[in-house]
Amino acid sequence: MNSNLVVFAKELSRTKPVELPEKFLQLDNLLQRSTSVTSVKYEIISLDILPILLLTLRQDFTTISNGWRLASISLSKLACSCMCVEVDKNNVKTKAWSSKFFDQYLPQGIDSFLLLTRHIQDRYTQEKKSHIRQDYMSYMDTVMNNLLEVLSFHSNQYSLIKQVLVSPKFMELFLTDDVYICRLMIDTFENIIRKSRRLTGPSVFYELSTKLKHDYVNELAYKLTVFDNNDVGKAAVRALIAICEADSKIVMLLVDKFKGLPTILQRWHGRGFGMDLQDLLAIINRGAKSGPYSREYHRENYAASRIQALWRGYASRKRLMKANQAMKQFQNSFRKRKMKETQMKNEQRERAEVQYQATREHYRRLRQFKLQQVQTIQLLPASEVEKYLEIQRLRSATKIQAIFRGYLQRRTLVNSGYDRLIADRAARRIQRTFRRYLQRKQAELDRRQKRLEYIKPAILTEAKREELLEQIETWRSERAPRAMSDEEFLALHTRAQENLNRYVTTNRAWRRIEQRQRLLLHMMNNDSEFLLSNYPKLKSVMEPSNERISSINQLDQAAKYLNHPSSAIRYRARQAHTEALKHARAPWYKGLQMANMDEDEDDEDEYFNRGGLDEFSRNDILNNPIRYEYEKRKFHQFTPNTTTSSIERHQ
């Protein structure tokens, strides 16, 4: 037993997990300096240093400086070297731990390699810098090469190959959209499939579940469809060939489920792996029942490809033309904008220069005016200086007022002129629209007239004319009027005259009665609504304790009725007031006579006041029994308390 390894194993048990990667570098140096490498590997396995190394590969190396480089290059290489050793179960030296090596250490090592690769892939996807991503790519390549070396060394251990293919971590690595990782994993998958072939019996890939095999095939077909990289396409084609050689059922799957795969493979021609494409197409063709790779099929595919190419070329040229037009338009608009900005700057500069010159001229004239004014004041006598200054102030004020009045007048003219212009434009537009409408109507009439001129009447032949005349004579003979006698004519005439006389004599009176009734009903409805809406309060209708107050209230109430808004109520109030005055002023015997007359003619006055009938209408109703019954029902319906009508009394 090597004493250095024993000391290293003791130190390893006391080392922290963070320091283990650097500690294993010493083991790598020990292994390189040893003369008998195999014996040193046996001692590493027997001292249980290998499982610690494999557990170290599973940790996160982010916190360690250059940790991922150390793990992928040094530690994975060291683990691969320790696992690639011949172990004989019958040998005395290796018999004690051989079963543990094959049952635990090798599967644990395979899983550690896959987990380390998965961690490096996560770091690769999160990194933004290209040179660091390139380093992570090389780390993944190194770890996968070490994995393939272990599988190649233990090629008779098919359980390790199955463990790799079934591992979810390997499937996660396989399902990637990165070009480099995709190429690396497809190459690894192809190598593993080729190593899984047994000398006798089915391959390891054949023993996988149907779902897992379909997943691998689906992913390879997806990569052939989506990716455009030559390395990815070549690796995917070679992997499909290896799968078809390992399991013949995959060929039927490609034929049945992936019917468009041969068409997809056509776009990979001329990429540098034509022989592999031909081999894959030949395999699919052998598995196809109807042989889709006939001359007609190739001709149709070529025609479709040609049409697609022509269409893509046309679409590309069209897009390029639109892009050129858009770029020209953009450049023109940009140049116009720049030109406009330059023009605006020049105009602003010119305006500023003009304003500056105008200001200088203004100050020059003002200074000259002041000098002339001073010279004039010097020449004038002292007594006329104030008078001169006052005249100058008045002139200045007059000038300012004139300028302001001119400004106001111009603004007024401009505003009114603009409104007049708008009104004229609106009038012209309305007139133009109306004239166009008249022109359209006249054109429509002209078209209809021309259309009628072109319509020729149907030609009436002699046979058709005779047939129509015969039909007319037949119709007239069938519907000829029946001859009436003189007595029938006289009776019909008499009956018509009676009906006409009855209608003329009764309809006029009836319309008058109906109109009066409707008017009276309308007046009653208005009066009732007014009375209901203006009913007196409870306090006003209560009986007062003093008779004098009660009489005063009655007089006030009568005065209110005399001044009532309704004409019917005012008329009735005046009529009642007149009758009360007659009763009050007449002798006592007159009062008795008037009372008897009121009792006899109460019903008739009621009827006449509500509509009234003249002598002609009354006689007409009495002579017509039907009209009499109708008028009687209407009267009783209108005045239900009346027992005897005026019509009955007259009868």
Automatic annotation (TrEMBL):
CDD domains: IQCD
A molecular-function term among this protein's GO annotations: calmodulin binding
Transmembrane segments: none
GO cellular component: cilium
Top-level division of the source organism's lineage: Eukaryota
Species of origin: Rotaria sordida
Protein name: IQ calmodulin-binding motif-containing protein 1
PANTHER family, per the entry: IQ CALMODULIN-BINDING MOTIF CONTAINING PROTEIN 1 (PTHR15673), IQ CALMODULIN-BINDING MOTIF-CONTAINING PROTEIN 1 (PTHR15673:SF2)
GO biological process assignments: cilium assembly
Lineage: Eukaryota, Metazoa, Spiralia, Gnathifera, Rotifera
Pfam families named among the record's database cross-references: IQ (PF00612)
PROSITE patterns: IQ
